[in-house]
Amino acid sequence: MKFTDFNFKPTIQQAIDEAGFKEPSPVQKEAIPLVLEGHDIIAQAQTGTGKTAAFGLPIMNQMKSDGSVEGLVIVPTRELAMQVSDELYRFGKLSGLKTATVYGGTAYGKQIDRIRQASIIVATPGRLQDLLMSGRITIKPQFVVLDEADEMLDMGFLDEIKNIFTFLPSERQTLMFSATMPKAIRRLAEEILKSPKTVSITKSESTNTNITQHYYVVQERERDDALVRLIDYKNPGKCIIFCRMKKEVDRLVSHLTSQGFKVSGLHGDMEQKQREVTIRGFKQGGIDIFVATDVAARGLDVNDVTHVFNYHIPFDSESYVHRIGRTGRAGKTGEAITLVTPSELRTIKRIEKDVGTKMVTQVIPTRLEVQNSKADELIANIAGTEITQSGIDLVKTLQHDLDIVTIAHLLASKLQEKHDIKGKEHIGLGLEEIELLIQRAMQSRGNDRGRGGQRRRRPGGGNRSNRNHRSSRGSSGHRGKRSNKPRQD
Ligand code: AMP
User: Fold this and answer.
1) Residues 402 and 309 in one domain
2) Is the CB of 329 inside a 6 Å radius of any atom of ligand 1?
3) Beta strand spans in 274-330 (E)
4) Which residue from 1, 7, 10 is spatially nearest to 28, judged by alpha carbons?
């Protein structure tokens, strides 16, 4: 199926072409025809699956650009509001459709001016309710979208949403998007949708399949070391590290900064301006690592996030889905990495079941393994480097005092300097240990809380020899592929 099969207006089709979209995503294939036919829909779609275009394109295609507010999109957070606005602006600009972004924490005047000129409003519930109830704005949108509805309910916006709908015309087309479909969402759908069509893409389609998911089992005190080791090993382009608490964000930011990484934190206490500056720094490349809480990172759409790290496993499956959806966006691949302690293994299994996904357990590479892999990279790099005149001149100068082998050793050591891998040799548990713990966790379901957990550090003898994956080659050993193969549980 191609986008041209939807017969969009030429200006919309041109915007799709300019965005570089080649083929509609699964949620777009299902939702767009239904929206064009005028149906209300309830769609289950995770972030990163192209849901903004799934509602944005077909509603904009039906808009008249008559100077009134024709569309209203309600989203849970400011970040998502900005992101959705940007996306809708791209689709609508050739059709003369203007977008206004409405959220709290900024002056009313400018926002109201923009609303007066806009065809579409993208708003967070609090500020929108405020504007409607105070009579500062009156709008009659024919198209209303609730985006990330489950997040809005989780954030306690149910009353605001219900109240907002009392200000909207009853003759309207309403579209509801949600990553998950708990009972509360279905109840809300019954209240605000009319004979909705369900867009039900299968679970594997609804979770972004471009994301590989791994988890590593560590002891509580090993989290920091594990994180640094994995960043060293994975060498991410841009990554987001999720924490549960603000104070943990602050602590990790200073820890990672002290380790030489370019890091910034994002949490709910930050001023809006400060958040925008931080997000811009991350988008434009000055910062490589973002440490964030769930709320702060909701809706964050940054291209090229190669890795998401869950420093702590999230409390619920919905958060897991939202977190990992920050990578693998726009058809790119990504990797989600979760650190768990032995007692959290059950949570992993529960999330796998809820989300309908498979996480693969891996073992944290040893210092030697990381060093070897860095050396492999370096060798490949050196082999691909062109000899330059300045290189030749440098060697000539050095040869006044040193022989050629010493020069080579010195230069190689210099190159290796920045690959100094920190921390202890072994971090986290080995595969055999993890397997045993998983078996135990599954067997003892429900009646043995507290057993088989953190104190049983070494099931089956307690020495390092049961780390069956570890090759104990020395630095001069064969540089083959790493032997800690992933395992499907
Ligand atoms: P969303 O799920 O709406 O947040 O979209 C995630 C990312 O995918 C955004 O950066 C979109 O611009 C991009 N995107 C949406 N639809 C497509 C498509 N059909 N082809 C390629 N990229 C897309």
Assistant:
1) no
2) yes
3) 289-293, 305-310
4) 1
Compute how many other C-beta atoms are within 10 angstroms of the C-beta atom of residue 311.
Answer: 19
* 86 vs 298, higher pLDDT: 86
Is the CB of residue 46 below 6 angstroms from any atom belonging to ligand 1? no
Please give the full DSSP string across 350-364, using - where no structure is assigned: HHHHHHT---EEE-P
- The answer, yes or no, to whether residue 6 has pLDDT greater than 60, is yes
Task: Tell me the DSSP string of 215-245.
Answer: EEE--GGGHHHHHHHHHHHH--SEEEEEESS
Answer yes or no: do 338 and 476 share one domain. Answer: yes
Ligand 1 centroid–CA 461 distance in Å is 51
Task: Tell me what the pLDDT averaged over the chain comes to.
Answer: 84
Q: Are residues 101 and 221 in the same domain?
A: no
Question: Which of 358, 389, 419 is a domain's end point?
Answer: 419
Same-domain check for residues 311 and 415: no
Choose one of 205, 224, 249: the last residue of a domain: 205
- How many DSSP H helices and E strands does the chain contain? 20, 15
Structural domain containing residue 374? 367-419
Characterize 261-286 residue by residue with b for buried, 16 or more Cβ atoms within 10 angstroms of its Cβ, and e for exposed.
bebbbbbeebeeeebeebbeebeeee
Output the pTM of the full model. 0.56
Containing H/E element for 378? helix 367-383
Identity of the residue numbered 114: R
In the structure, what pLDDT confidence band is assigned to residue 244 with cuts at 50, 70 and 90? confident
Let me know whether 475 and 379 are in one domain: no
Which of residues 461 and 435 earns the better pLDDT score?
435
In a domain, 320, yes or no: yes
Ligand 1 neighbour 6 (Cβ under 6 A) = no
How far is ligand 1, taken at its centre, from the CA of residue 53, in Å? 7
